[in-house]
C-alpha cells in the first residue's frame, strides 16, 4: 500500500514557540492532504484540507493564522503551529487519499506535540 | 447535523468473536470505513463498504445497510493484539470523512 510519513514523530517545545510538522507521501502524489488533531481518548478531528497550489481549507473553529498550512509540492504538506500554547498539545496526524475505487486514506504515523 | 454512534468500550475473550456496531446520520453517503488504532499510533485501514452486504477479509468482516444507516465490524478468533480502538468513519457527499468517537476493545485471556 501507499506510505505517508510524518516528521518529527515527537516534539516538545516551550510556550510561545512555533513548531513545523511535515507530511510526505513517499510513493505517490497527493494533490490533497488532510490534517487531523486527536486529543486523548477522543476521535480524530479534521483541522484542515491542504491543497497543492492553492490555499488550505480550514474547518470551523480552526484558526488559520495559528495553524499555517503549506502544500509545497505534490508530495509534501507542512503544518506550522505558531505561538504554541499548552492547550495545543495533541497528536497531529496527516492523511492523503490514494485514489482508486476505495477513496482510501493513508495516514501518517502522527506527531505527538507537547507544549510546556 | 451529522452523527456517528458507536459504543465507547467493549470487552471480549481471546479466541472469541466480537461485533462492533456503528450507526450514522450524514449528509450524503460515499462509503463507510473502519480503522484500527492502537494507543499512541495513527489509524490503519481495515475495510471499506459502499454497497449493502458483508465484506470479508480474513478474521475481520464488515457489514453495511445503507437503508438503516448501520454497519458493524466483526472480529473472529480474537487475539490479544486486537486490543485497540476501532473507528467508524463515513464519507459524506463532500467526500469528507465524518468520524465516530471510536470503540475501545479490551481482549482478556
The tally of beta strands of chain B, per DSSP, is: 11
* β-sheet strand percentage of chain A: over 45%
- Stretches of chain A where pLDDT falls below 50 for ≥5 residues? none
Name the shape of chain A in a single word: globular
The most extensive interface, with participating residues per chain, is:
A-B, 20 and 19 residues
Shape of chain B: globular
Described by its quaternary structure, the protein is: heterodimer
Q: What's the helix count of chain A?
A: 0
Q: For the CA atoms, what is the radius of gyration of chain A?
A: 13 Å
Main β-sheet of chain B: number of strands, strand sense, barrel status?
A: 6 strands, mixed
N-to-C SSE string of chain B, H for helix and E for strand: EEEEEEEEEEE
What structural class do the secondary elements of chain B suggest?
Answer: mainly beta
- Tell me about the largest β-sheet of chain A: 7 strands, mixed
* Total number of strands of chain A: 11
Q: Report the portion of residues of chain B in β strands.
A: over 45%
Query: In which range does the helix fraction of chain A lie?
Result: under 10%
| Uncertain spans of chain B | none
End-to-end separation of chain B: 40 Å
SSE blueprint and pairings:
The complex is a heterodimer of chains A (116) and B (109).
Chain A: E1 4-7, E2 10-13, E3 19-25, E4 32-38, E5 45-51, E6 57-58, E7 67-73, E8 76-81, E9 90-97, E10 105-107, E11 111-115
Parallel strand pairs in A: 2-11
Antiparallel strand pairs in A: 1-3, 3-8, 4-5, 4-9, 5-6, 7-8, 9-10, 9-11
Chain B: E1 3-5, E2 9-13, E3 18-25, E4 32-37, E5 44-49, E6 53-57, E7 60-65, E8 70-75, E9 84-91, E10 97-99, E11 103-108
Parallel strand pairs in B: 2-11
Antiparallel strand pairs in B: 1-3, 3-8, 4-5, 4-9, 6-7, 7-8, 9-10, 9-11
Amino acid at each position: 500500500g501507499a506510505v505517508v510519513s510524518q516528521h518529527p514523530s515527537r516534539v516538545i517545545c516551550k510556550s510561545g514557540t512555533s513548531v513545523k510538522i511535515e507530511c510526505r507521501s513517499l510513493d505517490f502524489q497527493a494533490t490533497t492532504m488532510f490534517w487531523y488533531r486527536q486529543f486523548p481518548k477522543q476521535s480524530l478531528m479534521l483541522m484542515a484540507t491542504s491543497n497543492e497550489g492553492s490555499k488550505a481549507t480550514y474547518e470551523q473553529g480552526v484558526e488559520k493564522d495559528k495553524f499555517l498550512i503549506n502544500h509545497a509540492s505534490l508530495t509534501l504538506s507542512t503544518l506550522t503551529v505558531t505561538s504554541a500554547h499548552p492547550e495545543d498539545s495533541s497528536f497531529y496526524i496527516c492523511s492523503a487519499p490514494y485514489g482508486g475505487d476505495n477513496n482510501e486514506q493513508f495516514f501518517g504515523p502522527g506527531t505527538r506535540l507537547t507544549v510546556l | 447535523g451529522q452523527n456517528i454512534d458507536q459504543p465507547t468500550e467493549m470487552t471480549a475473550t481471546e479466541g472469541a468473536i466480537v461485533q462492533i456496531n456503528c450507526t450514522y446520520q450524514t449528509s450524503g453517503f460515499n462509503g463507510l470505513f473502519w480503522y484500527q488504532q492502537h494507543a499512541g499510533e495513527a489509524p490503519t485501514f481495515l475495510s471499506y463498504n459502499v454497497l449493502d452486504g458483508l465484506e470479508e477479509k480474513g478474521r475481520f468482516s464488515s457489514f453495511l445497510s445503507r437503508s438503516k444507516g448501520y454497519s458493524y465490524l466483526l472480529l473472529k478468533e480474537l487475539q490479544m493484539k486486537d486490543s485497540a480502538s476501532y473507528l467508524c468513519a463515513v464519507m459524506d457527499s463532500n467526500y469528507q470523512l465524518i468520524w465516530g468517537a471510536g470503540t475501545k476493545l479490551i481482549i482478556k485471556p
